[in-house]
Amino acid sequence: MCYYNLKGMVITVKGSFLVNIAQGRYDVLYNITFQQIETFLTVAKCLNLSKAGETLYASQPSLSKTLKRFEEGVGMRLFKSSNQGMALTGDGEYLFSVLEPLYKTINKSIQLARYNSTTPLRVLRIVEPSSYDYTDDFTQLKHLVKAFESKYPDVVVQEHLCDFKELRQELEFGNADLVFTEDFGIRDIPGVTARLLNHFNLYITISAKHPLAVSDKLDFSALSNETLFTLPTMASEQEDIDTQLEACRFLGFTPRRVEFKSNFNTLLHAISKGRGICFCAKLKKIRLDDDLRYYQTDFPVQPSIAVAWRTNKLSREAKNFINMLPEDGYDGLNEPPQDTPPE
User: Fold this and answer.
1) What per-residue confidence (pLDDT) applies to 194?
2) What value does the mean pLDDT take over residues 119-139?
3) Under CATH, domain 203-296 is a member of which superfamily?
4) What pLDDT does residue 152 have?
5) What is the full DSSP assignment across 63-124?
6) 206 forms bridges with which residues in the sheet?
7) Contact in structure between 30 and 252 (CB atoms under 8 Å)
8) Residue 8 pLDDT > 60
9) Beta bridge partners of 293
């Protein structure tokens, strides 16, 4: 059995490389600058030093020198020659897939800090998953947002939709006051409190054109030759893989392989084309409605919709929203509950 990362490459020791960096196990980031990371990402997008130089207002020799220092710092060769001139190596593709969303998050944090320093507006920043508008599972929260806007008309509610990887980063880096998500997307984030609301059903989703889709009842054991597509939801790809495989084995099959997709739309596209299967909620109002078929699973513990926040970084607006949440759904996901009196 083989597993694939975001770029479709087989996972090797590289899969844990940046996890180890984040946990302080390697000191490879010493002397690496933000400018070097920006240069690497820009050149990786352009694959042309001249075009990258125009974007960064830098000469080609300067870019080459910066890239060389960056490669020396991370200890990997990131570019190679190709028929088109430049191409990313396997290490380069992997590093690009991890660093690009982090770079965007850092830039956004800086812009937000500047904005907050000059704008006296009261703002509630809410981050939601890409499926937010395509399932009824978030209906209760949508009603609560409307009720909050009516109760606090002087507060600007800013909503941002993204995939799990970015959603987790927005929560970890403090770019979100609140996160609405499926509970499995934030279980392993330290320093986070969550309140669980309604349960929801997970379905095995396949293409309506798949030979198995002719039946109203799916034989799960027949899925052993299928690729299982998924999105990153945890800090470690291996943890994601193990969780997905455990769910499959409970249903009585082991997929041929587990493959990560970079975003929600790409995952749905792959399913609709009959290239594999996935676990997801029942979706609506999407262009692929007629191309997908859903088969309900019967797990002993149903997942829940959750509202999560940084335990020790609550804005007044977030506290007021939390106080509107129903109390009976809380189960202490990561941190013990704390009193949040309105201000």
Assistant:
1) 92
2) 88
3) Periplasmic binding protein-like II (3.40.190.10)
4) 93
5) HHHHHHHHHHHHTS--EEEETTEEEE-HHHHHHHHHHHHHHHHHHHHHHHHHHHHH---EEE
6) 293
7) no
8) no
9) 206
The whole-angstrom separation of Cα 110 and Cα 125 is 15
Write down the architecture of domain 13-106 according to CATH.
Answer: Orthogonal Bundle (1.10)
Q: What mean pLDDT is predicted for residues 261-275?
A: 90
For domain 121-199+303-329, the CATH architecture is 3-Layer(aba) Sandwich (3.40)
The 3-state DSSP class for residue 252 equals coil
Cβ proximity of 141 and 305 under 8 Å: yes
Q: Please check whether residue 312 is in contact with residue 260, taking contact to mean a CB–CB distance below 8 angstroms.
A: no
For the chain, give every residue range classified as CATH 3.40.190.10. 121-199+303-329, 203-296
Element of type H or E holding 20:
helix 17-22
Q: How far apart are CA 27 and CA 195, in angstroms?
A: 37
Mean model confidence pLDDT for the chain:
83
Whole-model pTM?
Answer: 0.65
Confidence of residue 129 (pLDDT cuts 50, 70, 90): very high
pLDDT of residue 193: 92
